[in-house]
Specification:
The structure holds 2 protein chains of 2 kinds. Chain A is an alpha/beta fold. Chain A is built from 8 helices and 15 strands. Helix content of chain A is 22%, strand content 32%. The longest helix of chain B has 20 residues. Classes of the chains: A alpha/beta, B alpha+beta.
Amino acid sequence: MINPYLIHPATIMEKIREADSIHTYRLRLNDEETRRNFRFAAGQFNMVYLFGVGEVAISIVSDPEEPERLDHTIRSVGRVTSAIAQLQLGETLGIRGPFGQGWPLEAVRGHDVVIVTGGLGCAPVVGAIDYMFRRRRHYGSVKIIHGVKTSRDLLFHERFEAWGKQPDTEVLLASTRPDETWRYHVGVVTDLFERVTLDPAKTMVLMCGPEIMMRLGVPILMRRGIPATAIYVSLERHMECGIGLCGHCQMGPYFLCKDGPVMRYDLVEPWLGRGGV
Amino acid sequence: MYGQSQSYERIGGDLVLCLSGGFHLAPNVRGPYDVETSVPKMRGIGAMEVVGEIGVLSRSDFQRIFDNLSSKGYRIVGPIVRDGAVVWDTIRRVADLPIGWHDHQEAGRYRLEQTGSKEIFGVVHGPQSLKPFAFTPREPLVQIERSKDGFTTRSTLPPSEKVAIIGARACDLAGLAIQDQIFLQGEYQDPYYATRREGLFIIAVNCTRALQTCFCASMDTGPCAKNGFDLALTEVDDQLLIEAGSEAGSDLLSALSLSPASQGLTREAAARGVACAQSQVRRLDRTRLPQALHEAHEHPRWDNVAARCMACANCTMVCPTCFCHKVEETPDLTRQNSEHSRLWDSCFTQEHGYIHGKNIRPTIKDRYRMWVTHKLASWIDQFGTSGCVGCGRCITWCPVGIDLTEEVSALLKSSEQRSTSSRPQEAPGR
């Protein structure tokens, strides 16, 4: 019987500063066999462990086709992530995973794609965007819509710039509290839903960010003719085990760690708006 | 923890369903107990999965089972009286069992009484179900040790141990079957649970006395054990009827070379099971679950119960099926070693619904609703079965006497009335 609780040590190969209190940690599993057998899909997550402190669920940002390199973009907000922020190059973290359901990239094939993210929600879709651009001709037009609070919250600035230069691709950014250097939309990200050009019959949406963005944004997209079944959202709940046993990540009938974190919108719609679920 | 008894006005007037005076079960009380037709068909005493014949052992010879189990290397665990309640502990002889004791349970109340009889299994149950035996309250998972280039990890699987449990009730077996489904039959199997579970030999006792808090008949889980046991006993006066439910049980039964139980005695045992089912005064109406509870999300009754609930988590601790747990990291003082363990958690705690910077379920109302909706509705969506087995422990061990059956009755009743005026939002299927 495989022990899904066993933690595998991994070394920090790079630590990249993305923004205030946000770093990307490039990890490499220490054990050669574990490293060779590790496979993941874009949108899946690992439980990342720090010695003596504990674990936290973090999505894998890097390319699924280079599974020996595991990038995790982490904001220091809690007990574990604040302690991880103290680590330096060459130090050790632990990994269990990968867990959960990733983005439905095969189902998206042949469609126009709208990617909507807010804040740090852009991290879990980076792998999916890279995956699609490597197979550019399999996908229709790509719209990347991303919202941040202040301009300083914009991560992956070079990546957004590079994506915008891809054929048949549009990058739309919004900030509610920009500084004077901001060249993009001023306001909430959902404003952009009204103005983006869409062919609703052949569009699929991948969305990740605050739930309020989903609750307010999805109805706009649906009004524009995109069915709820063509919208996928990545959801966040507290997770302790990652394998559907600890009970914390429930949303209605779902365990978001194993049924999600990526869920088809029509399945979770009844639960998203409910308080206390 | 026990001792307080408070009464609240019963909203659901039909809750107390007196079944005495007839053999027929009330509508919605489901169970395999139709005394007029079922006894001749049954091989076991209310049991459906019986291996071999039913043997009979006199009460004074019961020690033979202990001796046999001990010779096979089993540690024997049974109910004992301690601190005013019955708890599981290691026992060696029949005399360790709570002979002559009866338990009386009501909402927020647990009392033991010594009747002076020779009855061995007069106590129905204590606060513990079978849950702690395989899903332990604290389980070390991984040991982490610092090394010169980081750290190394190893899993801390428990040693395998043969444990024979005497006195499990049908509701406990149903609870254990649900835990097996969660920890062993899902996408990920839990090796810690599996190791402990493997060593269990379970001797069930069919209930012939119902508590005021029991509602297993309405959950279709008891009062007689249907499966999941190695041996099942029925105590009829000074006789013990014994049936096997597994190969291991059958082997033990053959080793005892018992005389077969007479048809009259078997019939009497079955009749006592039926009478026990019929004497249950509480029931839970499952006919409109899970949908009706999903639809009751905005029901005013949640505010009503939240005003009484203290979010103490007792109900989840005594529940045979609640499986929520948290993981705790305990470094030693040298910071050379750290232990990664899991502990029982409860959806009633402040931390359960926490995600960075906010709490998904900040109020007691949110948490009580989460517990009941999960237990009786989402559980069905997730596992195809109810998360409640009708043992009634959450009623007994609630310090303010909140009665699950009463709350559900209130939640379902008004939602029926409401549905005539406005159509509630539909929850999805799986």
